[in-house]
Amino acid sequence: MFKKGFTLVELLAIIVILAIIALIATPIVKDSIANSKNQALKETINSIERAAYNYGYQNDIGYDTNYKKLTLDELISKGFLKGDIINPVTNEKMNGCVLYRWNETNNQYEFKYNEECPKYPESLINVLLEQYSESNTTGLVKDATNENLYYYTGTNEEVANNFLWYGGHQWRVLEFDASAKILTLVTQQPLTAIQPASAVWETQSAYESSYINTWLNDYFYNSLDSSIQATIQDSTFNIGIYTDVDEITTQRKVGLLDVDQYKRAGDANSFLDIKDAFWLGNRNSSSRVCYVHNEGYLSNLSLAFADGVRAVIKISDITITSGDGTLASNYQVGNKATNTNNVQVGEYINVPYNGSDSACGSDNVCIFRVVSKNNSSIKVVLNGLLPTKSKWADYANDNITTSDKIYTNVLNGFIANIDSKYITTGTFGVGMYASEDSYVVPQSTTISASVGSPTIGEMFTCNDIDLGITKKFVDANTIENPTVSYDYWTMNRYDSVGVRRVNDSGPLNTVTPSYSGGVRAVIYLKSGASAITFTGGEGTAQSPYTLQ
């Protein structure tokens, strides 16, 4: 007998049941496969981060709290990953990078894989190299005798993206060695205006005992944060005669531009020509020192003149976190202060102003810049001028006092409109600064006051705010009352009839105290045990810190 088979209805029922089972099982299988792939991806990412950790362990990556990055290609080339890494989900080659930093809160390193690998953080040299092309004749070019050395040449239009905000100062990158990973920087602005020496240097030791070298390697260098000092290299500076600049050299942390560097950049109208007078490191003769005239051409002066000082340093390559290298958006490293205790010299702070005279614009906020620090206060200078000119005093036969014209006409009224919770009393150097004096002489006599003007020899006692109507090397939007005056008073006399002032072409000169000049306020903000917290800002001219 034949066994009876399935009927059509039964077959259809079985098919329906199998279809239902398939519908239920397929997502489960797919999810299981996807979960397995995702788990494999997590394990792959963990292996990548372990490779970065091993790299850091073997290469002493330091304790930087800013994120740095390692690309997968770098880890492969250095032998910490073996060949291309395949994404188990997409079956494609993985790229991206590992971002890493020291986490102070957890007291350990962080390593995070990032698939997109953002432009920043990145080595500054790597970013600058993107500007190079073999066809370049201006901008970033390669040295003809050293294939690792790149330098900038050309006008500000041709060299517009080598601005760096670093350690409280705005720098221009002069050159860099791509192999040694060393950058040479010069401050964009003059930092002070002083007489360079008691006698022209014709030997190494004579230069090293000069006022200008002492200011750079004592006053300026010691004003920098220790984290910045750690990146500065001992460097050779050419201080010989202008026709043979390396006739004499010196090993210093900080130095000056030499004549050849200025010429190589393009001379007058180049990116180094700030239309402001500043000293170079070379002598012209036994009685005169080379300098750049405010119109940009090379010239020379006797030691009785007090011109601008621009610092030159060499630093090891740094990691930048933002910016496009322009005047308005400098490359930055991302370090920010939280209060007046840890602010850096050179950084900018917004201070509220309560007056109705618009002394600091319609926003009633005054931009100040940090001059110096001590255990209880920070000295700050207005980044610009007050809206009212003033006489200095009736006579110059004595040092300035708080009863003289500049105080009674302007300064006393200004300080009365700043909340006392922010300010404290400080010391102002009012000594005389005569011909060929050292920059420390003005500190020989002092007064105690809540407000004053710049003292010669300190930071930013120069044309760093670019006095005048046409702004040449700063962002005019950051300057308070930029067109009020072409000069401003210092606290210091020249002799019994004249007072020192800073003028728009850069140097210090002398006028009678009855002259009506610009006023640049200097105050002391509380710090130390009375530190003021910052509620925002980055400390730059475009984004000053905001006081709580």
Describe the structure.
The strands form nine sheets. Strands 20, 21, 22, 23, 26, 30, 31 and 32 form an eight-stranded mixed sheet that branches. Strands 5, 6, 7, 8, 9, 17 and 19 form a seven-stranded mixed sheet that branches. This protein has eight helices and 32 strands. A hairpin with a 5-residue loop joins strand 13 (278-283) and strand 14 (289-292). Helices cover 19% and strands 26% of the residues. The longest helix has 52 residues, at 8-59. The protein is of the alpha+beta class. The protein has helices at residues 8-59, 72-77, 124-129, 204-208, 211-223, 226-229, 259-265, 405-415, and strands spanning 68-71, 97-103, 108-114, 122-123, 139-142, 149-153, 163-166, 169-177, 182-187, 192-194, 235-238, 249-252, 278-283, 289-292, 298-301, 307-309, 312-316, 319-320, 331-332, 348-352, 365-373, 377-382, 423-424, 426-429, 446-449, 451-452, 487-493, 499-503, 508-511, 522-526, 534-536, 545-547. The radius of gyration is 31 Å and the shape is elongated.
Number of strands: 32
Coarse structural class: alpha+beta
Share in helix: 10-25%
Residue windows where pLDDT falls under 50 for at least 5 positions: none
Oligomer: single chain
Give the overall form.
elongated
Q: What gap, in angstroms, lies between the N and C termini?
A: 101 Å
Radius of gyration: 31 Å
Strand content: 25-35%
Main sheet record? 8 strands, mixed
Mean pLDDT: 93
Could you give the topology of this structure?
Layout: H1 8-59, E1 68-71, H2 72-77, E2 97-103, E3 108-114, E4 122-123, H3 124-129, E5 139-142, E6 149-153, E7 163-166, E8 169-177, E9 182-187, E10 192-194, H4 204-208, H5 211-223, H6 226-229, E11 235-238, E12 249-252, H7 259-265, E13 278-283, E14 289-292, E15 298-301, E16 307-309, E17 312-316, E18 319-320, E19 331-332, E20 348-352, E21 365-373, E22 377-382, H8 405-415, E23 423-424, E24 426-429, E25 446-449, E26 451-452, E27 487-493, E28 499-503, E29 508-511, E30 522-526, E31 534-536, E32 545-547
Parallel strand pairs: 7-19, 20-32
Antiparallel strand pairs: 1-2, 2-3, 4-18, 5-6, 6-8, 7-8, 8-9, 9-17, 10-16, 11-12, 13-14, 14-15, 20-21, 21-22, 22-30, 23-30, 24-25, 26-30, 27-28, 28-29, 31-32
